[in-house]
């Protein structure tokens, strides 16, 4: 007997339960990325869309350079996201002990991915609105179509690619090649490590047809049929997903267990329990210390990319601030400020993952919860402030360092605001996003 034929019904019930628990994002996940895209577009225009005042050929070249990169980034995100759903998803962990119909998973998981990532795609399209306001309507439509095409081809390629990688991991003919490229990783994981690269190659080829069609239409007026290449190629690849899932569902589960056990044999259990920056909790007030430690561990174990995002943003801002060009300080400060405002939203994600009944059971006061989240978010964001502080001080002297104080003030306010509205969970974005935009406008006025 097959247990999971009605997997779509299970998914529907899961979404209904999340909405009842106040964890459903609804329109928020669509509106906020679009607002961020519209808000960021004027600052990105001088860098990404600087050719809008030229002739048709110049506009096409500049537009394609931007849309190709945006679409390829979206495709890459979808490739990684599809891996987390089809290979590392919670559904696999729960249902593996039972007889399941593997073919029923890709359609539901693909719909889930499209639904959850649609805001990201629309936010990327919103970055192109200066093209529309400059009067290039056809260019905007084609550019937006290329970006959406990158999103769709990433989803379409991702699911069958990762399922096929399970077969590649156990293929005798590929064993020598996988051993050669695996590095320090288990040999069976090498196929999944390099699968996104293969997927990006395929996505990039399909997107090159779209950008070529855009250029041909804007310059010569040719019918841009090539714009359909990404969704068509994505759809063609996705047509193999159900068959591959039926064949490799349990094989993938076996490989995942083998990989996890190989890593577990080399890990130090004590090191695995240590959370990023948890040592700083020793200086917190005694009544707040356990709650701050709990916040550090929650962020590090469940939301690690969010906690490390300020490090990446700080590195980029630091590199920008190292330059001795006149606008380098401003560029570094804007990158750091944008990183701070985006990464501070981790408090909302923490609240969405934390059952209210748990906080009530341990008797956690709302004031202690907000204070601990504020301190944790502020600590996580310090690399985005300190790295550009170092490079700006070296490259431009002490006269420019007072501008970094504005970023530190922005960090404190953003952390407190995000933590204060975090009890609202995902709905808190409706309060935090306008507040973050207002803070950004105020802070930009201080920059040189």
Give the secondary structure arrangement, pairings included.
Layout: H1 7-20, H2 28-48, H3 56-86, H4 90-95, H5 105-126, H6 129-133, H7 137-169, H8 175-181, H9 190-220, H10 229-238, H11 241-266, H12 269-273, H13 289-302, H14 304-322, H15 328-343, H16 346-353, H17 356-361, H18 366-396, H19 401-421, H20 429-444
Helix pairs in contact: 2-5, 2-20, 3-5, 3-7, 3-9, 5-7, 7-9, 7-10, 7-11, 9-10, 13-14, 13-18, 14-15, 14-18, 15-18, 15-19, 15-20, 18-19, 19-20
The averaged pLDDT comes out at: 83
Gyration radius, to the nearest Å?
24 Å
Class by SSE composition: mainly alpha
Oligomer: single chain
For the record, give the distance between the C-alpha atoms at the N and C termini, rounded to a whole number: 69 Å
Count of domains: 2
Order of helices and strands: HHHHHHHHHHHHHHHHHHHH
Let me know the number of strands: 0
- Helical residue percent band: over 70%
* Main sheet: strands, sense, barrel: none
* Beta-strand fraction estimate: under 5%
Shape: globular
What's the helix count? Answer: 20
